[in-house]
Amino acid sequence: MPVTVDVVRAALAGVALPASAGSLAASGRLSDILVRSGEVIVSIAIAPAEATAFEPVRQAAEAATAALPGVTKARAVLTSDATPATVQPTVPLAAPRAAAVATPQPVAVARPMRLPSLAGIRHIVAVASGKGGVGKSTTAANLALALAAASDAGARQLQVGVLDADIYGPSMPKLFALKGTPRILSGRTLAPLEGYGLKVMSIGFLVEPSKAMIWRGPMVASAITQMLRDVAWGELDVLVVDMPPGTGDAQLSLAQTAPLSGAVIVSTPQDLALIDARRGVAMFRDTGVPILGLVENMSYFVCDDCGKRHHIFANGGARVEAKRLGVPFLGEVPLDPIIRERSDAGLPVVVSEPHSTAAQAYRSIAEHLRRALALA
Predict the structure, then answer these.
(1) Which one, of 36, 82, 78, lies nearest residue 60 by Cα?
(2) Are 338 and 356 in contact (CB under 8 A)?
(3) For residue 296, what are the β-bridge partners?
């Protein structure tokens, strides 16, 4: 019998919920079942306070799925993709206290946990932007490759990984020309894929390319935590994290879960983008994450015919903003068709066009980061 969603759901009918609350299959908690080429991923919706109580359920669901004929790999994950109205906690919760005041309060950030999977990572760097469309993912990929390469000054090569935390728009599979599903090493631990000598993990490896990621904020935060916790990163000098654009649950979750060494903010020069970059700086500062600096992307265009620089989106805005905010300015990346062409082909310019102006710009920014992280 071929493995189908209905077959998996039937198998999960034998998995009981805590406190005799019925079967998993009939509970409405199966938020997603993905079946692909013998590999099965089951998502179980819970309230945040139920994580401990539902861990045995997760294990039982994973075992029941793995036992099905034709299943080669099985994973069950707990997510918070549910509203209080649809998922009632099985574990008794304390009654919520009434708010004393209705005024906004500062974000309370828990001390980051040192997850066992992160024990071999020296530095975790978030690459973020206040808004989409500024070239954040392309910048993250090329900076990671530039960090990994030996510098012109003779510094050693670094061991670098890339975590694609842009859940709604994962770009690293395309940028690194990577396809396939990560291998399960043991239990829930996945082996990252490798591209150009870097370890790479992305939600894009685990879902169908055409599937829309219609996830609430808590589910996004849960996915990021799992990609940190359940991936065999090994020994790395730097893990570069490509963040979703904006400021929200994903950024807060990362600040709470991982000991970030700092954040790099990517912006284009125009005022509209800088407004959002300013919010990104403020958000990381509020969560206690150091700002390693600002990058001005699409800073200028060099005309093939006249050789002059043209400032399509203005110029120098990020440098001025960095000075105003009191954070380092890391450098300018040109608006160059070669960046787009190579990125679309899965051939980042740092490795495919190492002598180009764009590659030199990324290497210069990487040198600033090496010094800031004491890796030079």
Answers:
(1) 78
(2) yes
(3) 267, 332
Retrieve residue 117's tokens: 């999977």
- CA angle at residue 125 from 119 to 130, to 5 degrees? 140
* Side chain identity at residue 52, one-letter code: T
CA distances from 25 to 21, 30, 219 (A): 11, 7, 20
Q: Which residue has the tokens 């879902």?
A: 207
Q: pTM value?
A: 0.69
For residue 306 the two structure tokens come to 């006249």
Q: What is the pLDDT along the chain (376 residues), one digit of tens a residue?
A: 678 888 999 999 999 888 766 888 888 888 778 787 788 888 887 776 677 788 888 889 999 999 999 888 888 877 753 333 334 434 333 333 333 333 334 444 444 445 677 889 999 999 988 767 788 899 999 999 999 986 555 667 899 999 998 888 889 999 999 988 898 888 788 999 999 999 999 988 887 766 666 666 667 777 888 888 889 999 999 999 998 876 666 777 777 677 889 999 998 877 666 777 778 788 888 778 899 999 988 877 777 777 777 676 666 777 788 888 888 999 988 888 899 899 999 999 999 999 999 999 999 999 999 999 988 6
Answer for the pair 80, 47: CB distance below 8 angstroms, yes or no. Answer: yes
Distance CA 64, CA 184 (A): 17
Residues 163 and 300 sit within 8 Å (Cβ to Cβ): no
Closest CA to 127 of 261, 229, 307: 261
The DSSP output letter for 185 is E
Query: Cβ atoms within 10 A of the Cβ of 226, count?
Result: 18
Residue 70 φ/ψ region, left for φ over 0, alpha for ψ in the -120 to 50 degree band, beta for the rest? left
The count of other CB atoms within 10 Å of the CB of residue 261 is 20
Residue 272 neighbours by CB under 8 Å, 6+ apart: none
